[in-house]
Amino acid sequence: MGILPCHFSCHRNDESHSGSYHLHSESSTPSISSQPSLPSVPSLASTSHRHDEKTPAIHHKCIATLKNHSYVFTLALAGKVLYDGSSNGEIRAWRLDSSEHGDRTDNIVVATSNSAVKSLVVLGDKLISAHQDNKIRVWKIHNHEHHKYKCLATLPTLNDRFLRCFSEKNYVQVRRHKKCTWIHHVDTVSALAISTDCSLLYSASWDRTFKIWRTSDFKCLESVQNAHDDAINAIVLSRDGFVHTGSADKRIK
């Protein structure tokens, strides 16, 4: 078998190939001068200067120590009066002197009960206390010295209890063989909070519920049952209407 002659030129045109290569490179690769410049990096001098500035130190010092006769569980402020609630059921008012070295020992027991005071809030001319005996008490604040405050109401109020007791739907199971109206706390009332418009009082309890009371007549409006898996120890309200509760179940809701 013979070898057929090739009719196609096998010679490579280096010049034309090279020319076409360079032409393709120039058309596809933009010039460096046409590339957009990188944004300039701002000077770090001002930043380092700010770091060099020392933050002013904040110091606190104790200017007075107020001694009570029992364990103090809670505090509340009303102007220049400091209230404390203690384990012996007493609520004590301390007159706070504005001077740094003034006498801050002027105090008086303004209210007493037979149960430890767990929380205090001030609502206008009323002082509201939460107690270990499952009750909330409302006291009328007197401006006269050495006058004990009068208890205006114990929550739930007698009228509220009377209106709820006749309907079976108002009762909830609190223990295996015990029922109670839903307006009652059945364990220690541990915390109180007032809404921003002062129209509502919130109470939290070791019975795992928190309740909402109308401050105009102290009627119970709502009870959130089983809000936690364990005792509720704290409650706070935000300005945008949210309620935050903290519990012994290691959760905040």
Automatic annotation (TrEMBL):
Composition skew (Low complexity), residue ranges = 26-47
Q: Which InterPro entries match?
A: JINGUBANG-like, Quinoprotein_ADH-like_sf, WD40/YVTN_repeat-like_dom_sf, WD40_rpt
| A Pfam family reported for this protein in Swiss-Prot or TrEMBL | WD40
Highest rank taxon of the organism = Eukaryota
WD repeats span: 182-223
Annotated region Disordered: the residues are 17-53
Q: Which SMART domains match?
A: WD40
Gene3D superfamilies listed in its UniProt record: YVTN repeat-like/Quinoprotein amine dehydrogenase
Keywords, alphabetical: WD repeat
Q: This chain belongs to which protein, by name?
A: Uncharacterized protein
